[in-house]
Amino acid sequence: MASLANKVVLITGASSGIGESTARVLAASGARVVIGARRTDRLETLAEEIESAGGSVRYRKLDVVDPDDMEAFVAFACAEFGQVDVLVNNAGVMPLSPLSALKIDEWNWMIDVNIRGTLHGIAAALPRMEAQGHGHIINVSSVGGFVVQPTAAVYAATKFAVRAISEGLRKESDKIRCTCVYPGVVESELADTISDETARERMKAYRKLSIQPDAIGRAIQFAIEQPNDVDVNEIVVRPLMTQV
Ligand code: NDP
């Protein structure tokens, strides 16, 4: 098994939930983590926590919708730690609603963050990884990347897209590893932006089935720790014995 020690791992959307937890899990195993999100107060608190536990961390404001900001985030990581071994494209939003509610702004928001954000991460990291001859891109999709539930059509479409992008990346490169992670329901703030009442009610039922975000962090750790010639392409992590 390859070691995580000193690997430079960039994590988008690290100010809460899965990203925050993954940063803790990986830093505790010796990775040098670079965390980004828009809420820098949260990043600062997380960085202090990781450092006081003996971990190595840098943080920077990041809006994944802006390709220049993503480029600056990856450049910052290179300036601080000299390389980019792993990029975890985790930032995402999920304002669910039925299509008939015509929440076009929310559809576009999901497309911007979940699809364009992932592509911007790849655009910033891939050339550097190719130049150094190795790298690992980990994209966070969802079980919604396989199955569409009512109120989740657009969200699922973005996660289908993340799955397609991951598969394309894997097939196009024999140097860059690519893992797509498909979480089931995870305890986080993701559902907090749902304004639609129907969707909120549906999510309440699902939330009872949620697992903790560190389970996703451990799955990501597993993928990174494989030897360089082993590519873990897909990991589904969901609550035991549910159809969700
Ligand atoms: P959270 O809402 O807790 O975290 C989402 C993170 O994304 C936050 O850190 C937020 O930071 C960040 N983010 C949102 N918009 C942007 C942006 N424009 N630029 C940079 N960062 C942004 O949710 P989760 O941890 O649950 O979600 C993480 C990922 O996991 C998402 O891709 C989600 O779709 C996926 N997922 C989650 C599941 C769940 O049940 N929770 C299930 C399946 C997949 P900030 O607001 O500070 O910018």
- State the secondary-structure class: alpha/beta
Identify the CATH class. Alpha Beta
Computed over alpha carbons, the radius of gyration is 17 Å
Q: State mean pLDDT (0 to 100 scale).
A: 95
- Compounds present? NADPH dihydro-nicotinamide-adenine-dinucleotide phosphate
Q: Give the beta-strand count.
A: 7
Family: Belongs to the short-chain dehydrogenases/reductases (SDR) family.
GO molecular function: oxidoreductase activity, acting on the CH-OH group of donors, NAD or NADP as acceptor
Protein name: Oxidoreductase
Keywords: Oxidoreductase
List the helices and strands and how they pair.
Elements: E1 8-12, H1 17-28, E2 32-37, H2 40-52, E3 56-61, H3 67-81, E4 86-89, H4 104-132, E5 135-140, H5 153-172, E6 176-183, H6 197-207, H7 214-224, E7 234-237
Parallel strand pairs: 1-2, 1-4, 2-3, 4-5, 5-6, 6-7
NADPH dihydro-nicotinamide-adenine-dinucleotide phosphate binds near residues 14, 15, 91, 183 and 186.
Relevant terms:
single chain, 244 residues, alpha/beta, Rossmann fold, 7-stranded parallel β-sheet, globular, binds NADPH dihydro-nicotinamide-adenine-dinucleotide phosphate
Structure overview:
- The chain has 244 residues and is α/β, with parallel strands linked by helices.
- It has a single domain (8-239), classed as Rossmann fold, CATH 3.40.50.
- The protein is 45% helix and 16% strand.
- The protein contains seven helices and seven strands, in the order βαβαβαβαβαβααβ.
- It has helices at residues 17-28, 40-52, 67-81, 104-132, 153-172, 197-207, 214-224, and strands spanning 8-12, 32-37, 56-61, 86-89, 135-140, 176-183, 234-237.
- It has a seven-stranded parallel beta sheet, sandwiched between helices.
- Helix 1 packs across helix 7 (214-224) and helix 3 (67-81) packs parallel to helix 4.
- It is globular, with a radius of gyration of 17 Å.
- It starts with 7 loop residues before the first strand and ends in a 7-residue tail after the last strand.
- The model has no long low-confidence stretch (mean pLDDT 95).
- The structure holds NADPH dihydro-nicotinamide-adenine-dinucleotide phosphate (NDP).
- NADPH dihydro-nicotinamide-adenine-dinucleotide phosphate (NDP) is lined by residues 12-19, 37-39, 62-65, 90-94, 113, 140, 142, 183, 185-186, 188-190, 213.
